[in-house]
Amino acid sequence: MRIALGVEYDGANFNGWQIQAHGRTVQGCVEQALAQVANHEVRVFCAGRTDTGVHATGQVVHFDSDAVRSKRGWVRGANANLPGDVAIVWAKPVSDVFHARFSAQRRRYRYVIYSRSVRPTFLLIISRLRLSGEEPGAHRA
Asked: Which residues are catalytically annotated?
């Protein structure tokens, strides 16, 4: 069975998406987490790779597995095995012809370039709030 996932991550502490010989990667974390849920090695394919330090909020990936899990089981199981800077947002069974990269109908990129001599700490806070779905300035009671 082929499963598609929605992935989001804070790329600040990653050496990009794709597995490399040295360094922490998002793909490596996702594959390790899914392997725990599937009880076998898992290889994921993504819609597009990101570079070192790049964040993502709507990354689509897919993988194949014979393990029978509910959509909720894939999401909760993977998230239980992922670090705090990566999350699986949704899971969905897809046809065997679906490919995260080649079936993508669109991609959206947002570049934020802030140029000054002092680092902008508030941008980090805003990006983390947006990744969590909370709007800047919103407070929980």
From this structure: 51
